[in-house]
Specification:
The protein has twelve helices and 19 strands. The protein is of the alpha/beta class and 407 residues long. Helix 1 packs across helix 2, helix 3 crosses helix 4 and helix 5 packs parallel to helix 7.
Length: 407
């Protein structure tokens, strides 16, 4: 008789471990056909000092007694183990799990994980997909690499507080040398060594097609955070609803925090990067990124365009100061850049120019907003309770000033 196996399962992959016997079997690509329920098995020896590979990958019918007998006979010739019991338990558990699917959860008895709800507070929620989109040359990939480093180091900085974990960067655009250079510059600027265990994988096929291989990496390496750079090649047809939903199904099955980078066509201002509204609906949180470039530094803004699980965050800003060997990231105020400030809410843009009382026309000229838009914002403000008003009107009705100092 074999001992009781330990079972790990995720996204249709089942990993059985018989610790006493030193046997581990991975079962994936489970699917039903007319002749049975088939899967791919990879059988390994995990006992110390022994060659790990035993058998496979092998295509195996989980409900065929004959197939099971043949495989048991073959395995018995290779190594001594209670293969009859092992294969019986493996076949039964896998078939039942495949046919029954995920069991419903009784919420009254559910115990929430004793861990932070955020992977990187305040921008990335644990086990949820996030999307960052923007025009080219806006530091999207650099910022995603920066977040990967924060997860691995667990080092809080610039108002971002990471929960330590392991990251996997899936790259459709550059190469490992470019990624290494970015990580090296970021860690040099932070004064920390290159993070051990930060994983990089070049990608060619859509994520949904690569899912079994990526899922195996996530399970084997205990990955907590996955970056996909970038969305269009990862989906192949980013304007097709079916392709987009397949992509997010794959992300969900990985059961990790994920960040997808997407390019937005220049000059088009929407709250999602492509034609399909699923890019807005399926991520739990979306950010638009924008850059203001100078000679040796770049200031970027993050504008929170969607939040499923809470209030939207105010616009955030980060200044990237580049040298030949490193990059230093600091907090920046996006209101100090006219280009970035144009993405702030209209009321915030108006407050930003009210360093002294001004007329509606002067406010419109300085903010670049239309006169009618400024007039409407100011008029609406005066109809709210005085405790919620942002603007004060002069006694003659000509000038506007701040009612309070904005944080």
């Amino acid at each position: 008789m074999a001992s009781e196996p330990k079972l790990q399962s995720q996204g249709g992959v089942y990993l059985f471990t018989w610790q006493d016997e030193g046997i581990q079997i991975r079962v994936d690509r489970v699917h039903a056909e007319k002749a049975g329920v088939y899967a791919e098995l990879l059988i390994r020896n995990i006992a110390p000092g022994v060659l790990p590979h035993i058998h496979g990958p092998v295509h195996f019918n989980l409900i065929s007694t004959q197939s099971r007998r043949q495989l048991v006979n073959h395995l018995t010739e290779i190594t001594a183990a209670p293969w009859n019991t092992i294969m019986e338990v493996l076949s039964y558990v896998t078939v039942q799990a495949h046919r029954e699917g995920v069991e419903p959860i009784n919420i009254a008895g559910h115990q929430v994980r004793e861990r932070s709800t955020m992977r990187i507070d305040p921008i990335l929620e644990n086990h949820q997909p996030c999307l960052i989109f923007g025009e080219g040359d806006s530091l999207k990939s650099f910022f995603a690499t920066f977040l990967s480093v924060l997860v691995h180091t667990g080092q809080p900085t610039v108002g971002l507080y990471p929960e330590p974990g392991r990251a996997l960067y899936l790259d459709y655009e550059t190469d490992v040398d470019t990624f290494w250079e970015r990580v090296n510059m970021i860690t040099s600027g932070m004064g920390t060594p290159l993070p051990e265990g930060l994983l990089y994988r070049p990608m060619l096929e859509p994520l949904a097609d690569e899912f079994p291989r990526i899922n195996n990496i996530v399970m084997r390496e205990h990955i907590d955070f996955v970056v996909v750079d970038s969305a269009a090649p990862a989906v192949l047809e980013p304007n097709a609803a079916e392709a987009v939903t397949a992509y997010f199904r794959a992300l969900r099955a990985l059961n990790v925090t994920s960040l997808t980078i997407a390019h937005q066509v220049k000059g088009i201002k929407t709250d999602f990067p492509f034609g399909s509204t699923f890019w807005r609906n399926l991520p739990r949180s979306n950010f638009a990124i924008k850059a203001d470039r100078h000679d040796n530094d770049v200031t970027i803004s993050l504008r929170h365009t969607k939040s499923n699980n809470g209030r939207r965050l105010p616009m955030m800003g980060y200044k990237w100061i580049f040298s030949d060997d490193d990059v230093v990231v600091t907090i920046a105020d996006p209101r100090q850049s006219p280009d970035l400030a144009s993405d702030l809410p209209e009321w915030s843009q108006i407050l930003n120019v009210l360093d002294q009382p001004k007329t509606t026309k002067q406010i419109a000229e300085e903010t670049g907003l239309k006169y009618n838009s400024v007039y409407q914002v100011l008029s609406r403000d005066q109809t709210t309770p005085i405790s919620k008003r942002r603007f004060a009107k002069s006694s003659d009705g000509k000038y506007w000033s701040k009612l309070y100092k904005e944080d």
